[in-house]
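ok trying this again, last paste got cut off
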Amino acid sequence: MKTKEMTREQLISIIEQQEQRISELENVVEWLKVQFRLAKHKQYGVSSEQTHPNQMSFFKDEETATESIQPKVEVTEVKAHQRKRTRLTTDKLPEDMPVEIIEHELSEKDRHCPECGSNMHAMGKEIREDVKLIPPKAVIVRHVRHIYACRSCEANSDHVPILKADMPEPVIKGGFASPESIAHIAVQKYKMGLPLYRQEQEWKQHGILLSRQTMANWLIKASSDWLEPIYEKMRQRLLEHEVLHADETTLQVLKEPGKAAQTKSYIWLYRTSGEAEKQIILYDYQPDRKHNRPREFLEGFSGYLHSDGYDAYHKLPDNIIIVGCLAHLRRKFFEGLKILPKEKQKCRFSN
């Protein structure tokens, strides 16, 4: 009897273990289904985190909601009827843009009435506005410094004083670069994405032989002499704030010494928070994502740092308090909502 009871207990134990194992496997299968639905949504679904109005209200992101472009209706009154003219709200001309006025008038001989031949008077005007783009024009700015000497001293003294008129120093000594030309090259390359070899062709169309190597040297020299001191001053101002934001993203750099072109580099972003009166946004290029990068950049900062959950930010000194990013927190709720069946995604709060 005792042997049978032990066998029964063993069977019960085996059954319980199997049931527990089945439950664990069911949980794993359910987890894999959730991950599959989430991966499928990330690959094929829309990337915007917008929710249905009937879904939970805290998913609604007021700040990121974009206003759809609706045609703006302009109404012009014309005696017997109204004429409607539409223009997209995104198509606007700045009010302070210079205006060139061209008057279109009939000649004196054409101002006679086609019915009775009497002279006709101007009863109104019809105005149309066009945008005229003026291509950039290159000019040579020749600085001529006048030098002065004293004729009396030349005749009566063994020392002749010489005075020179003031003349601004060149942006880059020994070259013909101007602030305007360097600014144009920088904007075309970094803002408009126009490579230097294409800019070289553009300069050539104006009759100016300016090599891409020279332009690259101009950018490097101007950056080190003029922009880096401004950057460092902005960094000092940035670190004086109590609340900052930080993030990093990948960047591919070609022909970087010691690294293959396929390897990742990183751009770290640091910026002031919304409470700052004057906003500062700075980028810090680094070849890697090591935790000492933000430590070095934020040296001297003490306060609150908004960031994601990357471990490097949590290795900063104790005087820097890490504040979790609510956008990343919201994203987890949004992902959790997306993996639910559609009939369970809609919910309402009762009053």
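PB: full thing came through this time. Residues 147-230 form one domain.
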